[in-house]
Amino acid sequence: METVLPGIGDDAGALLRINLTYLWRHRRLPNLADPTLFTELVQLRKLRDRDLRMPAMADKVAVKALVAARLGRAWVVPTLWHGTTLPEQSRWTSPIVVKSRHGCNQNLFLPDGGAADWPAVWRQAAGWLGASYGGWLDEWLYTQIPRGALIEPFVGTDGQLPIDYKFYVFGGRVSHVQVHLDRAHDHRWVVHDSDWVPLANGAPRLPRPSALREMIAAAEELASNMDFARVDLYQPGAQPLFGEVSFYPGSGLDRFDPPALDAAMGALWLRAGGHRLVTRQPAPTAIEVAV
């Protein structure tokens, strides 16, 4: 599918916001005219990339059919319910997850199925459904996903959230695996290469997942024919499970550990086709846009 690339200066407001949020998090302005860093390329994707495959793959309801077709139904967490308004009363007694269809970090983990305080769950989900997502960080693709919510069975073990394996795929090949631990209490992550070697000095040695090769192959299959996507998977048991696909990891505002990963991943993205995002005209700075 052809990607639409609007001019980098077409939305001066978006350019100003992106420069200022990047400056706030990274303590410097992004180089959008000649980017070398992964985090800079994420900003350019937000400004310029309108590939219609991205909203379809980030839609937490619609993507399940794609995953089932490419990987098999065993990889898909079942959907217990989806719609635009939660049921007035909970229908579940076992652990569930309530999440928004069209946003990120909008989820509730309910060990009792919501029986304890469903009205509070209902009100929080209504807040998600009453607002679009992605506008304040200029993450275009989320504005293209229908607003909605879905409910899935909880896939963790003994009430603990599953380890989240995030596979960075450049040009159809996994280069790095970011492992997120203890997301409910002491959230932290460790980046490995594709051979499961941790890349930060002093990083803990984490057990290699038994299905690592299968998960790498699955991530590469789902992100084939794209210059970059991050595919998130779980392995709570023998069978790995699909989580989601991200095209703006951390909105390009998270700092890498080690910091050199920002340049290393930027180089991989540019070689895989990220150069298409780079305008031939010098990008104005935030100060120039503000004036």
UniProtKB/TrEMBL annotation:
Taxonomic superkingdom: Bacteria
Name the record gives this protein: ATP-grasp fold amidoligase family protein
Source species: Sphingomonas hylomeconis
